[in-house]
Amino acid sequence: MPYMVQKQVMTHQLQGEIIPPGEKRVMVPTISWTPEMSVDVALIDEQHKKLIEIINTLNSAIEENAATPVLDQVFDELTEYTRKHFSTEEELLVRAEYPQTVVHKEEHDGFIYQLIAFRNDFENGSEVVSTKIVEFLYGWLVKHILGSDKAYCASLHEKGIR
Ligand SMILES: [Fe+2]
Ligand SMILES: [Fe+2]
To answer: Tell me, what DSSP letter sits at residue 20?
Structure first.
């Protein structure tokens, strides 16, 4: 009964017990960039793909029960690349005089704030928190791309930004 085995492992995790090194954790399903997520601006699509790739790497590192320095490194890469992506996007929004620029930037700032808060939780070494982090990251990013990011497409195109 594979399902029962899976369920037992999940319960084990939620109790916050430490999984011995070398044993795998239950992984959050990875995601892939899909054409539906395209904002029709080549640079931004590339950055979104890279962001998803980094979160997938973090997810794998958590599943593999990687050592803290490895997780720290991936988390640093994610924070750094997220900042880079947000500033690229914000520059384009300003250039296009996009009316929702301020609100959009506030969403970005909120996400960065969350990343920093998660990093602190992460340092405490709770695996339950780690799994929740990945779920949050996937959820936020996909929702933001499909909603707020896609909403600026037309404004950017009007200014010839593709
Ligand atoms: Fe955005
Ligand atoms: Fe974006």
So the answer is: P
> Which residues have beta carbons under 5 A from ligand 2 (an ion)?
149
Asked whether the beta carbons of 65 and 24 are under 8 A apart, the reply is: yes
Tens of pLDDT, residue by residue over 41-91, are 999 999 999 999 999 999 998 888 888 888 889 999 999 999 999 999 999
What are the CA-CA distances from residue 161 to residues 36, 42, 51, 85, 140 (Å)?
19, 9, 21, 16, 25
Nearest ligand to the CA atom of 43: 2
- Pick the ligand that lies closest to the CA of residue 90: 1
Ligand 1 centroid distance, CA of 86 (Å): 6
In order of start, what are the domains of the chain with their CATH numbers?
39-158 (1.20.120.50)
Treating both helix axes as pointing N-terminal to C-terminal, what angle do 127-144 and 101-123 enclose, rounded to 10 degrees? 170
